[in-house]
Amino acid sequence: MQQRQHRGPMPYIERDTSWMYFNKRILLEAMRPDLPLLERFNYLGIYSNNLDEFFRVRVASLRRLIDSAEELPTTERKKAKETLRTILRLNREYSQLFDETFAQLVRELKDAHIHIINEHELTSNQEEEVLSFFMDKINGFTNPIFINSPTFNPEQHLKESLYLAVVLWHDQEEPETGHEVALLEVPVRELGRFFRLRDEGGESYLMFLDDVIRYCLPYIFIGREYVQYEAYTFKFTKDAEFEIEQDLRSSVIEKVSRGVKRRKRGETVRVVYDQALSPEILRKLSAMAELNFRDTRIGGGRYHNMRDLMDLPDCGRKGLRFPKQPPLQMNEFHYTQSMIHQIMHQDRCLHFPYYSFDHFLRLLQEAAISEEVTEIRISLYRVAQNSKVVKALTTAAQNGKRVTAVVELLARFDEQSNINWGKKMQDFGINVVLGHEKLKVHSKLVYIRTKHGGIACIGSGNLHEGTARLYTDLMLMTAHKGIVHDVMQVFDFIERPFIAPHFHHLLVAPNDMRQPLYNLINKEIRLARAGQEAYIRLKLNHIVDEKMVAKLYEAVTAGVRVELCLRGNCSLLPGVPGYSEGLFINAIISRYLEHSRIYVFGGGGEPKYYIGSTDWMTRNLDRRIEVMTPVYDPAIQRELDFIISAGLRDTEQGYYVQGEAVRPRRDDLGPDEAPFNSQQALYKYYEAKKNKENNG
């Protein structure tokens, strides 16, 4: 087979730029008239929440690079500046699109008999209802702070919350001297963002909590002589990163705890505000936050912190959300039989949220009381608020099992929660192992030792009841002796990172993953050059590692069929002559967040299948403990083929990934061609499988 020649520099989209393109795909979902209305509001909320975290983490990191000392290479600082300029340009474009979409959805909400009204649109009955709500619920949560107070400290008072800048007028005829400014935190955490008023005439009415407070300003500032009140929303976004102190006298927990506290005082990197806010007050807010010319100021509509749209109530109206799809119970796992014995007999694979997370909980609960089980080891990256997983582990410890829990203290934004869970588990006698401060433990592993052998669970997602209802994830349950032995060695390595284990089945980052992946790709390249069938099919969240991008381009130009099902960051650019002609990438944004990772290599007729926790990002491959497990069971291999084929085929929720030139695949459907939705197809597949077994 003739190899295509490369032309020009390797096409590569910067990680952070590609993330902006990904988030735009979420925004495009909010614009789709064929989706249920509140799901479109939900996509706006997801877009906003994603953007907040992106500025807190990635934009803040770029700013630090740009402001770094001279020892950083000039080329790296220059590249960071270019990326930041691109991000800010795209952010301005997308912010305008967001505001236009929100206004359109509010209009459509009226047609669904739900009205979002403000303080100027209240009837007399509604005014009484709002005032009653203020007296009963809000009063006591609203504590204004005057910015001209001699003791006002912006560092103490300006958190990453939603605020109102309240302009209070003593005398409208003297605008320069006749007003004061107070800041008032909107108590969203305590009261929620929306206040539902009583229905009238078959119509439902909602108010943003901001507008409820606007109406009640005269009561909040009672006792002071003001003739007029104006209130404008704003919100600061702060740098979420913190450095671990190099203090040998402190434990890792103490250092992380101090870092979490410092995060609250992090540098401000963005302010979003009501564009009706006067330039004078915007300057005051910018000065308080010490914003410089590189920091972002986004003027928009009256409302901000739009992540709360994910909680917009349906007011009892039907048809405004996706039809419910309750998680299914696997017939293979009979409640009357031991799950441990069934896994010993045959490998199983759980696919959440199509299958219920209850299966995994039952396994832990059985292990906690079984006389055959002597030891449980588990890695915990994020933990649910009222974790049934932790409850099962504490039960096991109380029943005399040796229980080891690896708790990752540096799971971003869950650090304090994980510290608290670690202490609680220690109180129950669990051996808590803390992730190394320079090597995150991101693998999703469980090892259960019994008197007759061990079993292992290797997954793509966190052992978390909440996300298991929202994220698509896979978990292999196996008693394969080689895999189980390798899982044991991973836990040994986590506890003693100075050892150098050798893994026979698992691919384990940071030491034993990158080169084996190169070897798998190289084999496909050799097969293609020899004129044999060669293919690579991947289902991942992100591919941004430059070496992996280059390797996939090499495979494509050698004639390997490369098909990727990606959700998020994608640094590859299909269709570039000499590099990526024939490369196919489908991105799915749908009701569930696509999070499962599947890796399939053709192998010359003997394909190799893997699932695991790692995306192809430099941090995952080189700076984290990640695990990919082979899948040997033919039935599970066929299921993985079905999952990835469905994802690649999706024309209803799929997008062609071509850099910023995002194009919905449904746009290419013919007039008689029905769109294909992979998530619906998978649910029907598992449902039919369950019914067939019931009837068989």
TrEMBL record:
It catalyses: [phosphate](n) + ATP = [phosphate](n+1) + ADP. Its EC number is 2.7.4.1. An intermediate of this reaction is the autophosphorylated ppk in which a phosphate is covalently linked to a histidine residue through a N-P bond. Gene3D superfamilies: Endonuclease Chain A (3.30.870.10), Polyphosphate kinase middle domain (3.30.1840.10), Polyphosphate kinase N-terminal domain (1.20.58.310). ATP binds at N50, Y471, R567, H595. The keyword Kinase applies. HAMAP family: Polyphosphate_kinase. Belongs to the polyphosphate kinase 1 (PPK1) family. This is Polyphosphate kinase.
